[in-house]
Amino acid sequence: MSRERIPEVERLRGIAFLAVVLQHSIAHYTVEPGMTTGDGILMAVLLMATKFAVPVFIFITGMVLFYNDKGPLHYGRFIQRRFGDIYIPFAVWTLITLLINNRFNPTQAEDWKYLGGVLLTGKSSSHFWYIIMLFQFYLLYPLFRSAILGIKERWGWRTQLTILLLSGLLYVGLTGVISDIGRWMGSLDIPVWSELFTTYADRNALYYFFYFALGAAAGLYHTSWKKWIQKARTGIWLIFLFLFGWMLIQAVNEIRSAENGAITFYSLSLLRPMMSVFLISSILVMYDVTGWICRQGGARVNSILT
After folding, report:
1. Is pLDDT of 81 > 90?
2. Nearest alpha carbon to residue 288 among 211, 219, 242, 235
3. Does residue 10 surpass a pLDDT of 60?
4. 258-271, pLDDT tens digit by residue?
């Protein structure tokens, strides 16, 4: 049986949902004709303010799983539930998307092959990649669970914290060598595996693992996590605001130097070292924000976000 719900998580999920919607709205307008440099800069500000969405969702996944984890893991039932709650809706909307875009004709054998491919890769639309990436965490949960709970049982909290910090540094370093890993894996030409690190590297769960691990730590030590967020509030916000400004400058320079007035945000890609540090800080800031909303936001705001 699940434990009592974490109120901050419900508000955090609501805010992240709204951020995802805004991100995709921004993506639509970047390619609309008539967009100016000023429009691009405004969109860059909005995009930076919503970049936390994907890492926060991964963080929430890890937090909720480990917060509710007790007793033996029944992997079959665990996967069956996630398959019904997450993958089936994804499959239904994949088919709807293909039908709307005239990409699927049930009388054509090739279209069935294409449907099978996009159900495995999330390539039917730009936003479906996330489900494919997220579901890997559920499939690999026994491995994450064994490693994280093993660390918890074997070592004290100081060592656990050190391991968490080192894994964070490892993750930031990892995002800096993704291209090198992709070239190496591509040269090996291993079916499926090479593609996971090249064509589909953006949905490889390995490249998002720290957000899940951070969520696991917050779930296992929920009370201590909340106290630490409050205690470290000033430092967290200063780091977040500094990185927000620094990354925004990169985006503005990119927009101003773009050829033919094209609006692009390559400098704000998720899988970059400085962006990963910013996203980690944004998770901490958004958790602090939702804690404030729970306490001071009022019944109406809390109800809407929930």
Report:
1. yes
2. 235
3. yes
4. 777 678 888 889 99
Q: Percentage of the chain surpassing pLDDT 70?
A: 99
Identify the burial level of 188 via C-beta atoms within 10 angstroms of its C-beta, where 0-12 means exposed, 13-18 middle and 19 or more buried: exposed
Question: What tens digit of pLDDT does each residue of 165-210 get?
Answer: 999 999 999 999 999 999 999 999 998 899 999 999 999 999 999 9
More confident residue, 27 or 240: 240
3-class SS letters over the chain: CCCCCCHHHHHHHHHHHHHHHHHHHHHHHHCCCCCCHHHHHHHHHHHHHHCCHHHHHHHHHHHHHHHCCCCCCCHHHHHHHHHHHHHHHHHHHHHHHHHHCCCCCCCCHHHHHHHHHHHHHCCCCCCCHHHHHHHHHHHCHHHHHHHHHHHHHHCCHHHHHHHHHHHHHHHHHHHCCHHHHHHHHHHHCCCCHHHHCCCCHHHCHHHHHHHHHHHHHHHHCHHHHHHHHHHCHHHHHHHHHHHHHHHHHHHHHHHHHCHHHCCCCHHHCCCCHHHHHHHHHHHHHHHHHHHHHHHHCHHHHHHHHC
User: CA torsion angle for 245, 247, 252, 258 (degrees, to 10)?
Assistant: 170
CA distances from 33 to 23, 28, 29, 222, 262 (A): 18, 11, 8, 48, 10
Contacts with 261 (C-beta within 8 Å, 6 or more apart), sequence order: 35, 36, 37
Q: Tokens at residue 105, please? A: 């004709």
Among candidate residues 291, 213, 209, 280, the one with its CA nearest the CA of residue 9:
291
Whether the full predicted model's pTM is greater than 0.90, yes or no, is yes
pLDDT digits (tens, 9 = 90+) for 65-79: 999 988 899 999 999
